[in-house]
Protein 1
Amino acid sequence: MTASTTLDTPRAIPDQKKVGMVSLGCPKALVDSERILTRLRADGYAMSPDYEGADVVLVNTCGFLDSAKEESLSAIGEAIAENGRVIVTGCMGEEADVIRARFPQVLAVTGAHQYEAVVEAVHEAAPPSQGPFVDLIPQPDIKLTPRHYSYLKISEGCNHSCAFCIIPQLRGKLASRRIDAVLREAEKLVAAGTKELLVISQDTSAYGVDIRHEERMWKDHPVRAHLTDLARELGQLRTPQGEVPWVRLHYVYPYPYVDQLIPLMAEGLLTPYLDIPFQHASPSVLRAMKRPANEAKVLERLKNWRAICPDITIRSSFVVGFPGETEDDFRYLLDWLEEAQLDRVGGFRFEPVAGATANELPNPVPEELKEERYARLMEVTERISAAKLEAKIGRTLPVIIDDVGEPDEDGDIGATGRSQADAPEIDGQVFLRNVPATLAAGDIVQVTVEDADAHDLFGVIA
Ligand code: SF4
């Protein structure tokens, strides 16, 4: 089982019901799992780290791509084989008929972020044993990420209709959280030891559009539900040690106001990192993809951003082999990448997803051609990444520690961390040698870079 191994329950209650959790999919789904488990613990449930000890197993599924759906179905199958009492939730919950056809014995199927419905299903499957102490003592929220970094989800759903994506069908229209609630959560996380906040949503730049950027009071002044206000306030947070926590923005579309965030990065109040899912560069492919904020001046803006904040890291992802993509479109993308010099790039081959409008588009790209373009894309982006990382050799950079190893036969201890250019799970790492035994996960240390490859850095504490 994944995720639930980090959970424990501080108070043993006789006959306390135990819930197992298998959490699949993206960080947004992980946040959903955390919310569900926090709710269940408040209701008196304990968490089981294995199938055997669980009275019921929750499978939080991902339904983004057909391959993710297959993975979700096999996780459901495993949970049924190992435990038998299974509730399915998450993105694939929208396809209850597919799940029930394959696994008629599942106890309940609920959709993404239907917290109430999942909790109710658990209550029905394994009624909680209410001990006299349950609910009286407030407990911290359950986190499935290490204590030193946390995902901060600011909205659900999406108002766009990108041709390759079914997220709006799965998760609905944009629904932004109140800004004071988001800031309160962030403040609580930082007070509890979070050193790095990862701001996530489906479309971070659109935050607050659905609630007309409503104003709320926060610390005696009004703040709007808008990314610029949010970023400014997050930049005011301090850890209990008085440090500025790292604040990383993901899934930002380059709407014009994004320019206003760059000075905050230059001032050190926001981590100089922007994750912008460009997906392509050729205007005709972007049009066919129906991408938001698809505008011609992006290269110029990248240059301006770098002039204001030279250390800014731009991460992006690109899809090759979208229906109708010609050799000229693909070359346009490669030329654009040579000019844009993005720091981090993820590449994907187009994969049709049941229900996406892109599936009906003419001129699908043959699989061998997709593979060939993918290899060419990776060749270009790895070369750019290697050169960018090589340029960091000799520099001293802040690094957040994720993991400290055991001493080897010579007594040397190694550690793994990330620079401000590396988001957890998706970017590179910094490998450290000869660290002091007192170093711990979550420490932020200054590291002199000694070597680099195409993705990672190697160094020593300065
Ligand atoms: S912006 Fe496009 S790709 Fe992203 S969730 Fe919305 S529809 Fe999907």
Note: The radius of gyration is 23 Å.
Protein 2
Amino acid sequence: MYPVKIESKLFCTRHDCPYYHSLDNHITKDGVYTTKNDGVVRQMFKCWKGKHRFSETGYCDLFGKHGSFKEYEQMCKLSCYGLSVDQIADVLLKDTRTIATWQRSASQKANRFHEALCLSIALTVLSIQMDELWSYLKNKNKTLWVFVGFEVDARFWLNFELGSRTTHTTTKLVTRLKDYLGKLTRMTPLKVTTDKLAAYKNALQSVFTGHIDYVYLQIVKKRVKMRLITVKKCFVKGTEDDFKGKTQNTSYIERFNLTLRQRVSYLQRKTLGYCKKKANFKATLWLNLYDYNYRCPHKSLRQPTVLPGVSRFQKKWTHRTPAMAMGLAHAALTWRFLFVVPIPVTH
Ligand SMILES: [Zn+2]
């Protein structure tokens, strides 16, 4: 039983097997083994049609990459604390290229896992906030923008897109969001809040129209010399009545941006840590997405388990990750889970 609501069928992972990645195959558990490397028990499987055994490490791109699960996990954690590949290599006493390969493999798996999970179930999303963060690419003359889509109620990081600050990049992000929302008929229109960038309006219009019923609010902030003067609400689509409760703002995404800037060294301001290679940036973001959505409990999502004053020694709170609040998972996931969960590669 998986802690996530995903129907993942086991498949054969051996490249030279004629039933490689075939779902029409019978796979069963077949004993365990430990490696000299880390002494952690690993599961073996049997591919019945191909008549051979294979290890659960086949389900991650880290298979045969000369590291232990512990080292892979450490690499992921350090990446999410904002360390660069060089720094991680130094801490783990490995070659920089080794760490780069591990990071790429783990982030590709995180990407595949997130996409597969979000596309397998139509997500129940009531309100979305979008924003963009700037950073540099290669040198300080070239800016690179990170567009982020964020679900408000579950604090779920839906997706991101790297590129220039144009309608093109925004459309790519909005299209991903549209795919995640699925064909589910909506009870209430989807609430979208962004800042005043015109690209959002164009992207939403071209992508959502005819597919998703939405209302759209722009928060227009006016600053003079970095100081906030006025905040104006501009209802582009829909009226004030459509935005009930705490949804007439971009506060949630702005708080999330802070989390991101804190955790992704490429986004830290006034440092030399900006991105030199777009692929590395993407890899770090995917690892952070997994860490944020699936692994770490979010403080504001916790729920009280006992009535106040019952007992001092009882557990007071149930901690939840954004994915749990979203109804995608039953428990907080681990890095190890990401490595071994069977997600087929789709081409
Ligand atoms: Zn096989």
Note: The chain is about 30% helix and 25% strand.
